[in-house]
Automatic annotation (TrEMBL):
It comes from Penelope pileata. SUPFAM superfamilies: Class I glutamine amidotransferase-like, P-loop containing nucleoside triphosphate hydrolases. Belongs to the CTP synthase family. Signal peptide: none annotated. This is CTP synthase. InterPro entries: Class_I_gatase-like, CTP_synthase, CTP_synthase_N, GATASE, GATase1_CTP_Synthase, P-loop_NTPase. Residues 318-547 form the Glutamine amidotransferase domain. Pathway: Pyrimidine metabolism; CTP biosynthesis via de novo pathway; CTP from UDP: step 2/2. It comes from the Eukaryota. GO terms for cellular component: cytoophidium; cytoplasm. It holds the Pfam family GATase.
Amino acid sequence: MKYILVTGGVISGIGKGIIASSIGTILKSCGLRVTAIKIDPYINIDAGTFSPYEHGEVFVLNDGGEVDLDLGNYERFLDINLYKDNNITTGKIYQHVINKERHGDYLGKTVQVVPHITDAVQEWVMNQAKVPVDDDRKEPQICVIEANSSFLFQLGGTIGDIEGMPFVEAFRQFQFKAKRENFCNIHVSLVPQPNATGEQKTKPTQNSVRALRGLGLSPDLIVCRSAKPIEMAVKEKISMFCHVEPEQVIFIHDVSSTYRVPILLEEQGIIKYFKQRLNLPIDDEPSDLLMKWKKMADRYERLLKVCSIALVGKYTKLSDCYASVFKALEHSALAINHKLDLMYIDSTELERSTEAENSVKYHQAWHKLCKADGILVPGGFGIRGTEGKLQAISWARTKKKPFLGVCLGMQLAVVEFARNCLNWKDANSTEFDPDTKNPVVIDMPEHNPGDMGGTMRLGKRRSVFKAQNSVLRKLYGDEIFVEERHRHRYEVNPELTHFFEEKGLKFVGHDTEGNRMEMIELDNHPYFVGVQFHPEFSSRPMKPSPPYLGLLLAATGTLNAYLQRGCKLSP
């Protein structure tokens, strides 16, 4: 097993996740089996109870793990399926060690950070690195480990959060346990360019590398992030002052698409370096897989036609809150040769209360909604902004705008239909109004109202199509069932579904027992679809998610032609 540790310096959020994913993609293109692990220093067991404004979206895995959004990057880039144990947190490690102590595994010994916590980190990494993540179920050969930069190196070389130091010490020890030929450290740093001088500054990177060495880890590669391409003189300066060869300094400037990052890495000789440094049994040249990435990146940059989608949600101030939704839309837009114009609309700004408080915001939000080619209402929790989402859904239904509702978006589509087509004016979800006389969305039976963490219906579940002529069924290749990832507590009330079906809102898919409504479609509408699951988590750059693809096709007026061709994309 070969281990590649990716650390970060200067600031967080400079693209370690994309770089780690891109390195994995390059190695996979060379015929190697690659897995990935993300380490986060927080004491939470998982990301499930975070607000999206804390760390971005909560990404859900097949096994129901609620994890950091970077694992979504790994899955999309590498086309693999990870597990909840591929996301290590301080909380998980300490819980694991404390459980062992209570069990008596350390009987007679004082349990300490060193060696017990650090040993637990190393054992976890070694065990999880062996777990197959590809469809062929073979053991991986390479494990890319991304360490959250908030616990490593901040500006000026000062150490960040103290809670992460056990991980640093664990990997200082691990490099010797794994042996040099099996362990490689890549340090991602920032080369800022102040507007006042226009000069690219290397001092932050020098300080960051010095701090890294002070902790016992020496970088084999330094990946420098910058806004603009970095000059050769800067590369030579970093090489000289950071004690590495010039070919060990890699530059990644801001690019139009993340699809371009693996290409930039490959062009700077990273395959040849890994082959020599880790003694890998690979050729110097990449395979067809990387060539496909290059073609995809080239095609992305040449797109001329634009499709605009309005995303109506409550976490629109931070785009990472809907990272997988954006990627699923982007994959689908690329598949039909369109550039995506995603317009984020805060759902509260569509509500009448905003019109009274700030009429400019209200009218701007409605202007965005009205000019969009399609409308998407994603998942979410809580009552705030739901009335605005209902307004957007009503607009999409009555104006025959292509619409996709995901999770809460589907539930609210049912609520809107009940209020305006069945004339159940107080229809609601019991999440928002426990005493409603028309509870069209109710608590799911599996939900435990006690502890919040890990109590939802989570992970990959099977949904069975019950309608032959369903648009969604055709988009999924006329399959009998689909398996998609879920994350929700509430369900459409199965006792009321016949009222909706009589009026044209069809429940075209349900769970294997037939009790949980999984998919809806509206008759006599270009594309009015809702799904209880989260198809965005399974979308891949070269395999777009069918519900999202359907939305983009409908928004560009090409859905019917696509279905008539047997769901084959035009060249």
